[in-house]
Amino acid sequence: MDSRKIVSLKFLPVLLFGAMFAGTCLAHADSKSAGPAKVEVRKTDSRWQLYVNRQPFYIKGAGLEFGDQERLAAAGGNSFRTWRTDNGRETGQQILDRARKNGLYVTMGLDLSRERHGFDYSDTKAVAKQLANIKAQVLKFKDHPALLMWDIGNELNLNSKNPKVWDAVNDISKMIHQVDPNHPTTTSLAGISKGLIDQIKVHAPDLDLLCVQSYADIVNLPRQLRDSGWDGPYAVTEWGATGHWECGKTGWGAPIEENSSIKADAYRKRYETAIASDTKNCLGSYVFLWGQKQERTPTWYGMFLPSDEATETVDVMQYLWTGVWPEFRSPQLKGFWLDEKTAGQNVRLTAGQGYAAKVLVQSPADATLTYVWEVMEESSAQSVGGDSEVQPRRLPGLVSSKSSGSAQLKAPEKTGAYRLFVYALDSHGKAAYANIPFFVDAGTSSVAAKP
């Protein structure tokens, strides 16, 4: 999704509410000031607190690469995090300028090379070159009034064995503190364990706080923090849908994605259980992902569809951030069946044969629903840590809609693994969705290729 799209007029009431809410909650000292915000992490009254311009600040944020800043502010968010200073569509300057205009603060990612991609943290010349590159980025953006903190690397512990990575992180943190006295430093970890925390305490003590990233397992974060021995300040920089590595799988190994309503319920429970419940050490969080991306499917982690509609998870986050539900609630998906089976029932079809599909969606009385159906090949990606994936091939012409919530699928002629997607789009820019993985077997008269 291109975050530079103009927000349509149908979102105007929500945007006005969000703008008013943000204006009362954010800590920008002077909208005309061009100086940096003074951001501090302090321990007061037995708890850790983030301060912006001497005012308490709790992060109500989202991971936002190409997503819509305006709708984030409208929903009551006050911050977003990036994974790099320049995302390829907008420069760091454009990102920060736009954030300031929207009353948002930015945890700016500093993209460090990863061991799993072949970088050697024992190579002193390569490490020094990286530090110089990062310093140039810090110097470029350190005085921007929308900057909140620096996030040094993302999930550097994932598939990593060399503890010298944390020496490099520590050197970058020290460099930042020398040239930028106004913004804290952190790094985002893939999960948490005692061994990992012990390494960071030894090799990267200069960091001001830690950031943790966890998905379905985030409900165990309070216990994991205790077991790891971390009693300092932290934020959660990624959390959201159940990960594709955490869910059930079909008999042929396809991960089973939860539908939009199950995800929305999980987001609320995970936030209340693992984030809002910690009033001592947690400085807030960034939900993943305020936008859309391909990772196993086009819908797994994004809170918006590729066609830009908001899903029920956006409604939930607005409620959690503001205590107020949006005026127009998203459709709720109550069930989805292919050949009278659900996604977890190992749906196997015969090549070239026809099968009934049905979806049950509940929507507000004044919302008109439009249904979109599509078939995709199953993803063969084996990437980890959110690395780039190619979207699987779409197969048009296999679904004919019979009525509002039902359709007829003609199974592909080639044997193999596929998914049937359904999207219920309403007249307010909201949507529900689900998909069912299925496997096509060759028929007795089929000329389908072997898997």
From TrEMBL:
Residues 117-217 form the Glycoside hydrolase family 2 catalytic domain. One of its GO terms (molecular function) is hydrolase activity, hydrolyzing O-glycosyl compounds. Residues 1-29 form the signal peptide. GO terms for biological process: carbohydrate metabolic process. Keywords: Signal. It comes from the Bacteria. It holds the Pfam family Glyco_hydro_2_C. Residues 383-407 are annotated as: Disordered. InterPro entries: GH, Glyco_hydro_2_cat. This is Glycoside hydrolase family 2 catalytic domain-containing protein. It comes from Pedosphaera parvula (strain Ellin514). The lineage of its organism: Bacteria, Pseudomonadati, Verrucomicrobiota, Pedosphaerae, Pedosphaerales.
